[in-house]
Amino acid sequence: MYAAIRKLIKSLLYPLYEWRLVRSLDFSKTPHHVGVILDGNRRWAKANPNISDPNGHKAGASKIIEFLGWCEEADVRVVTLWLLSTDNFKRSAAEIDELLKIIGETVDELAATGRWNIKAVGALDLLPDWLSHKLSNLQPIRGDGVEVNVAISYGGRREIVDAVKSYLSEQEKAGSSLEAAKAHLTSEDISKFLYTAGQPDPELLIRTSGEQRLGGFLLWQSALSEFYFCEAYWPDFRRVDFLRALRAYSLRQRRFGS
Q1: Which residues pair with 149 in a beta bridge?
Q2: d(CA 131, CA 35)
Q3: C-alpha dihedral (218, 223, 228, 233), degrees to nearest 10
Q4: Which residues contact 1 (CB under 8 A, 6 or more apart)?
């Protein structure tokens, strides 16, 4: 009974709390690029014993469209969502197959809205042909909708290796020797060949589920990012949690390594 009363009180107070958070935010300081590690789907499912593990992933997938709507409201321009890491392939084949199916359906749903430019970032060669083909043929929309990177089969180390390989291939095609390519290589050159080339680096990275590590997410791009770790599992992530992350970001004095 007391738990039900507390839940009712919270449901009544949260709209007021959200309103106060919005009033306190300076949206001119909104990060242009937000990266999110969507963590905690399996643990959320275990915390809800009447729900199977695959449905934990589905619950997490259904949160994405809602979250992107919050980003639109906050004038975020680029969002990178880590849906599947290269390390995730160590899981059982049955779980991976189910997860890839959910990811494919999620990408279709995002594209069907016509609201956002969807771009797949990751080692697509590790994916089954049907999903790799789907992700390679995503069509951009007209207008200035949020750019949404879906990081699938993504690993930060793999991205950097791929960028260096692409740079060396370009230099070889241009007739440069290996020694010349090495001598002229700069950090800007590597940035040009990252999966997110042409986009601003993320100013804010959010990880749900209480884990306080990046796990290889946007290793190169996050050198000067601010981090925000949230206790909520991804399916339970609320707009108020997102607003708290934006507030924490706006209150930090960014030193850019100085």
Answers
A1: 80, 119
A2: 22
A3: 20
A4: none
Helix segments in 74-197, DSSP class H: 93-113, 129-136, 156-173, 178-184, 187-191
Condensed to tens digits (0 to 9), the pLDDT of residues 168-221 reads: 999 999 999 999 999 999 999 999 999 999 999 999 999 999 999 999 999 999
> Where do runs of H (alpha helix) occur along 25-125?
41-47, 53-73, 93-113
Taking the C-alpha atoms of residue 142 and residue 148, their distance in angstroms, rounded to an integer, is 14
| Residue 247: HSE in the Cβ half-sphere, 13 Å Cα cutoff | 15
Q: Phi-psi region for residue 200, left (φ > 0), alpha (ψ -120 to 50) or beta?
A: beta
For the chain, the structural domain boundaries read 37-251
Residue 170 is encoded by which pair of tokens? 């370009």
The catalytic residues are 39, 88
Q: Whole-model pTM?
A: 0.90
* Second CATH level (architecture) for the domain 37-251: 3-Layer(aba) Sandwich (3.40)
